[in-house]
Design brief:
414 residues, alpha+beta, single chain, 16% strand, 8 helices, Helicase, Ruva Protein, domain 3, 4-stranded antiparallel sheet, globular, N-terminal domain of MutM-like DNA repair proteins
Length: 414
């Protein structure tokens, strides 16, 4: 969830509470995902930061870091639910926590906790409930952090890289790809920092439909899209993601009631907004404003069909049957291509000669034939039946208890 504005908010708190101070206490709990997935560990993190002075804090899109008095430097990404808590400070964005403030420290789901030596002492903790965050160490000079992986693989930041993310640069980027424009904006390899809600806000402000292919935008649309990126991202960063300062006509102010009873479905100006899925993400769209002016992705489920009929002709019955036939053909093709994987090919096993017959569902005759073809030496020795004289002799007496019938055998073995 934290995007460019929310990360700017936490960088501001780091500058306020940690920069210029020495970290006298550094505690970390190892997490095979949060630390381990990026080749770091709790022990290495503690060793790298303990006794070091924090000289600065920086950001590129959704990534942020602390510049230490000497390398390595911690580089962090919040993922979906990560955040940085400052003791005795409300750092929450959008709206303060509704729950009663806990005095527990370090807070629940903490990954690392810091304490400064200088008075007044400051304490900070990185928390993540869903473990989708990433914490790593960059063993390069601070000025080279953005020149090495993973930041070097990411696109320019809309705020700090305005000299790169120009209208001309954006036009070339859009023209070089044929993907839904919303998907392009969310890809951090193209532009850093734009997430789901920022992407929707940008496209609404630019009057561009999220499904439209990126290489079909007109020069005028590219120009407006560039202005909208600068406007929305700039406002989010400069306001430190304080939603109380967001314009009242932003989608952000009204979009969060999806699926809830009596939730808003219109903006203050009366324009109706709907939700559809683009690139696997839920998008908030205002059909009356965001018109489709070019080809769109055909595999996107449009939940706004009923509301966006102005730019779609009603499909005839023959056309519907033809389209359904094509869909069935595609499904059949995909199924046929996927069958070898189900038969074990993807796991390095040899495929059955007849891939249409899953190995787990072989006929009994096939199993019997395979058994008969086994080498004689590999067969288990047959078990001989016990002599009758070794069996228990006696009469079987039956006892009935309720509905269940039990057998008691009396007698002695020979």
């Amino acid at each position: 969830m934290p995007e460019i504005g929310e990360v700017a908010r936490i960088v501001n708190y780091l500058q306020k509470h940690l920069v210029g101070k020495t970290l006298t206490v550094v505690k970390a709990q190892h997490d095979d995902i949060v630390f381990g997935k990026v080749g770091c560990s709790a022990e290495a993190f503690e060793k790298a930061l303990t006794g070091k002075k924090v000289l600065g804090a920086g950001q590129q899109g959704k990534y942020f870091w602390m510049e230490m008095s000497s390398p390595p430097h911690p580089l962090m990404h919040f993922g979906m639910t990560g955040w940085m808590n400052i003791r005795d400070e409300e750092t929450a964005y959008y709206k303060p926590s509704q729950s009663k403030k806990s005095d527990e420290w370090p807070p629940k789901f903490w990954k690392f906790a810091l304490e400064t030596a200088e008075e007044p002492k400051s304490e900070a903790a990185f928390v993540d409930k869903r473990r989708l965050a990433r914490i790593r160490l960059i063993d390069y000079p601070a000025e080279d952090i953005r020149k090495v992986s993973p930041l070097v693989e990411n696109g320019p930041d809309p705020i700090i890289d305005k000299d790169i993310l120009t209208e001309e640069w954006l036009g070339k980027k859009l023209a070089s790809k044929r993907v839904p424009i919303k998907a392009l904006l969310l890809d951090q390899a193209n532009i850093s920092g734009i997430g789901n809600w920022v992407g929707d806000e940008v496209l609404y402000n630019a009057h561009v439909h999220p499904e439209q292919y990126s290489n079909t935008l007109s020069p005028a649309q590219v120009k407006q899209l560039h202005k909208s990126i600068q406007y929305v991202c700039g406002f989010a960063v400069h306001s430190l993601a304080d939603s109380s300062k967001f314009p009242e006509d932003w989608l952000f102010k009204h979009r969060w009631g999806k699926g809830k009873k009596d939730s808003a479905t219109k903006l203050p100006n009366g324009a109706k907004f709907v939700f559809l899925t683009v690139g696997g993400r839920t998008s908030c769209v205002v059909p009356s404003v965001q018109k489709k002016t070019g080809p769109v992705a055909k595999d996107v489920e449009d939940e706004a069909d009923e509301d966006d009929g102005s730019d779609r002709k009603e499909e005839t019955q023959p056309a519907k049957r033809k389209r359904a036939s094509k869909v069935n053909d595609r499904k059949q093709t995909v199924t046929q291509e996927a069958e070898p994987v189900e038969n074990g090919v993807a796991n390095g096993e040899e495929a059955d000669e007849n891939p249409s017959k899953p190995a787990s569902k072989k006929r009994k005759s096939d199993v019997k034939a395979e058994t008969n073809c086994m080498d004689a030496g590999s067969k288990k020795p047959e078990r001989k039946a016990k002599p009758r004289e070794n069996r228990v002799k006696g009469e079987a007496k039956y006892e009935t208890t309720g509905r269940r019938k039990s057998t008691r055998v009396s007698g002695k073995g020979v």
